[in-house]
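yo

u said u wanted the structure for the complex thing, so here. seqs first:
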Amino acid sequence: MTGKPRDGGRKGFTDRELDIMSVLWREGSGTVAEVRDALGGDVGYTTVLKMLQILEEKEAVSHEREGRAYRYIPLVESVNAGGRALRRIVNKIFHGSAEMLLATLVEDRDFSDEEIQRMRSVLDRAERRRDEE
Amino acid sequence: MTGKPRDGGRKGFTDRELDIMSVLWREGSGTVAEVRDALGGDVGYTTVLKMLQILEEKEAVSHEREGRAYRYIPLVESVNAGGRALRRIVNKIFHGSAEMLLATLVEDRDFSDEEIQRMRSVLDRAERRRDEE
DNA sequence: CGTTGTCAACGATGACCTTCGTAGCGATCG
DNA sequence: CGATCGCTACGAAGGTCATCGTTGACAACG
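structre next:
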């Protein structure tokens, strides 16, 4: 009857936590009020504050004083969080097949030619990187 | 002080739930004992049963009798769950950029030439699908 | 027929998530 | 100066998650 241990660091974000991290990644940093505004203002001020304090306890963000308020700064990088999340999905849902993942992604949404071209370039770069070593 | 409502259907899976759904997707179906074995046997029988009952309550699986036991069958398809999870990630972490997502994916792991070729084919198909309509 | 083993149902437990109410503190306004 | 405002700190409330103990059925073994 243990429940899960508090994630002292490293794993994943819950929905609300991800909402908040998303704002910080996009803006670079944010005070409580700024984050709350970016979320549309439909959550209470103290709720956002509490989430930020919990995220700090998990070492996902830190803060520095700015006037009377705190400015919160992400410590975890979005690319790292994204890599973890993608690994989880490709393993648990697509049985390790990146091809199936990509197929699901492109079928899910209509991408422009430019987007598809850029994705192709990503694959080209990956291949070139492979070849030259 | 509300907490989140129990997800009566549709959204996402928690870690353990995903472990279990992953087994059912891979095997097609499973009894409690089969799922438990597939997970490595390091969780209690009643834990697995309970999770399956919760998943059934969420309408992610159903069951039919098989001898004295129940056989659980996934109702949610992996591709749908994958699509939802990918949308969440691309929006919240990669700010809507599928290119960034793909770049993170291919940098995270070393793919073989065959895998990269297959991913390229996925993009080709997507483009062809776009052109012919 | 009693013991043993497999199985589903139920309830409890402990940790966490998300939401706020309330309080305290300093600055600003009137 | 007193009221108010913006801010952080504290803690509680109600819900989920993940785990399992216990119970009761039922069948198979000896």
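Chain B has two domains: 15-74, 94-131. Chain B touches chain A through 50 residues (CB under 8 Å).
cya
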